[in-house]
TrEMBL record:
Belongs to the NnrD/CARKD family. (6S)-NADPHX binds at A43, H153, D232. PANTHER family: ATP-DEPENDENT (S)-NAD(P)H-HYDRATE DEHYDRATASE (PTHR12592:SF0), ATP-DEPENDENT (S)-NAD(P)H-HYDRATE DEHYDRATASE FAMILY MEMBER (PTHR12592). Keywords: ATP-binding, Lyase, NAD, NADP, Nucleotide-binding. Its EC number is 4.2.1.136. Transmembrane segments: none annotated. This is ADP-dependent (S)-NAD(P)H-hydrate dehydratase. It comes from Celeribacter marinus. AMP binds at K198, G199, A200, E201, T202, G231. PROSITE patterns: YJEF_C_2 (PS01050), YJEF_C_3 (PS51383). It catalyses: (6S)-NADHX + ADP = AMP + phosphate + NADH + H(+); (6S)-NADPHX + ADP = AMP + phosphate + NADPH + H(+).
Length: 288
């Protein structure tokens, strides 16, 4: 069933992206990006910068003590909070002004296993990416809630949903072949939340069957997105939009759209660090 819509930014979404003169920083939420151990902190910072650039009012990196200095040496507008254990995370999340989480980029698979139950128990809008997806493949989806957004690339999707992924490549025995859209829709239904399957064609589906496809092809091609860390920035952008109050489906769709537009602003030579800094150009072109 390929009845997914093509992704565009509606006037309503553009309005939601704007900031008004009456706003203050807490109007636009606080995103908390969980960071991995020393030597593996860059991905969380990429995500954090993505979250801040799409307009989250505040962004903090939750860092283990051992990586505090490493992170502090690289961050200015983004804040740091020390979180060494799942219990410390739960205590940090007593602050109801933290409105979205992002877990996974270079977080470590074992570490994700330890932290995911506390992350999910917080019941906050949450992007689950990278190592946290690999962990989820063994944990299962019981604790996943509807405010989650899973952002797998094709390899992670195969780990998380091996049977569904196998259908994409399999020849159809009866009826139409199983498309990437069918697969993402089936995955979202199984996980009980929004799933964004990355790639030059990105599909975003929700548990209720809504699905949108976004092709970075033809006039909107963005092949330089095939670079390390581009997905970490996307995870952060979605977390930033969740923090601002976007629904999971809208945050994933809008994040995917802005991510490709940012890549197109930079063009050839793009590296992941460039993506967040291209967002103001995208917003200007959108008339925000
Ligand atoms: N600057 C940084 O600190 C970066 C950290 N990263 C972190 O590195 C860790 C490992 O992530 P990876 O995704 O590299 O490794 P993974 O091992 O999770 O996945 C890569 C494997 O999946 C396969 N695969 C199949 N389809 C794929 C697709 N469409 N895209 C990518 N891989 C596909 C690849 O062949 C490869 O064997 C994560 O924690 C990630 O967040 C990466 O995001 C790169 C940048
Ligand atoms: N050829 C391509 N055309 C358009 N977008 C791409 C292409 N290759 C990768 N991307 C996008 O770049 C990002 C890569 O994310 P991911 O694979 O998680 O990389 P990383 O883990 O290194 O951050 C995704 O948003 C994906 O959709």
């Amino acid at each position: 069933m390929n009845d997914a819509q093509l992704l565009t930014l509606t006037p309503e979404i553009k309005d939601q992206l704007r900031k008004s003169s009456q706003d203050h920083k807490f109007t636009h939420g606080h995103a908390l990006i969980l960071c991995g151990p020393t030597g593996h902190t860059g991905a969380a910072r990429l995500a954090a910068r993505g979250a801040l650039r799409v307009g989250a009012g505040l962004v903090s990196v939750a860092t283990p003590h051992e990586a505090l200095a490493e992170n502090a040496a690289h961050l200015t507008a983004i804040m740091l909070t020390e979180v060494d254990t799942p219990e410390a995370l739960t205590a940090t999340l007593m602050d109801a002004r933290i409105t979205a989480l992002c877990v996974g980029p270079a977080f470590g698979i074992a570490r994700a296993g330890a932290f995911l139950p506390a992350v999910l128990a917080a019941n906050r809008p949450t992007v689950i990416d990278a190592d946290a997806l690999t962990t989820l493949a063994s944990l299962g989806f019981d604790a996943v809630h509807p405010a989650c957004v899973l952002t797998p690339h094709a390899g992670e999707f195969k780990r998380l949903f091996p049977d569904i992924a196998a259908n994409i490549d399999a020849a159809a025995i009866t009826g139409a072949p199983h498309s990437k859209i069918d697969a993402t829709r089936a995955a979202a239904k199984r996980a009980g939340c929004t799933v964004l399957l990355k790639g030059a064609e990105t599909v975003i589906a929700s548990a209720d069957g809504r699905a949108v496809t976004h092709g970075a092809v033809g006039g909107r091609a963005a092949p330089w997105l095939a670079t390390a860390g581009a997905g970490d920035v996307l995870a952060g952008m979605i977390a930033g939009l969740l923090a601002r109050g976007f629904t999971p489906q809208d945050a994933a769709q809008t994040g995917a759209y802005l991510h490709v537009e940012a890549a197109r602003v930079v063009g050839a030579g793009l590296i992941a660090e460039d993506l967040p800094d291209a967002v103001p150009h995208v917003f200007r072109a959108l008339g925000l």
